[in-house]
Design a protein that fits this description.
There is one protein chain. The chain has 4 helices and 4 strands, in the order ααββαββα. It is of the alpha+beta class and 147 residues long. Strand 3 and strand 4 form a beta hairpin. Helix 2 packs parallel to helix 4 and helix 3 packs across helix 4. The N and C termini lie far apart (56 Å).
Length: 147
């Protein structure tokens, strides 16, 4: 690497040893200060929220769900009354992301376009999941009316 291509390192971006990133410190320090209990409680809450979402999304007309969540990720999709379900769900993801109140992602499973809700932030709670359900229901109805 030539001297022109080298970037200057900032001590603020280096670990206490001033060598390379020590990302483990962000986990190690809270574990030492607070113990495992808060981490276990947060994980338990996220699992409960995923299962809550899985149950509630089934009550909204038009949505089908994937398997019962073993992790804090739920898969689901909307089945419109007519037209291509994959194209509809692609538009649904874009509409929700443009709305920006919630963020969902997507994937393909067995060739089908599937929506995903991943609940992993410590800041995500029941009110956020209820809002996600409201946004999904409203957005799906809006798109269905446009078709």
């Amino acid at each position: 690497m030539s001297p022109d291509n080298m970037e200057e390192l900032s001590p603020a971006e280096l670990s206490p040893e001033l060598t390379k990133h020590f990302r483990g410190l962000c986990v190690w320090l809270p574990l030492k200060l607070f113990g495992l209990a808060p981490f276990r409680a947060a994980l338990s809450e996220k699992m409960q929220l995923a299962r809550y979402f899985h149950e509630k999304i089934q009550l909204i007309d038009g949505f089908e769900v994937g398997p019962y969540p073993d992790l804090s990720v739920v898969t689901y999709r909307y089945l419109p009354g007519r037209g291509d379900a994959d194209a509809f769900n692609e538009r649904l993801v874009k509409k929700i992301q443009e709305d920006s109140r919630i963020f969902i992602s997507s994937t393909r499973i067995d060739g089908k376009f599937i929506l995903r809700l991943a609940i992993s932030s410590f800041r995500t709670h029941l009110a956020d999941i209820d809002e996600a359900l409201d946004v999904l229901e409203w957005s799906a109805k809006q798109l269905a009316e446009e078709n």
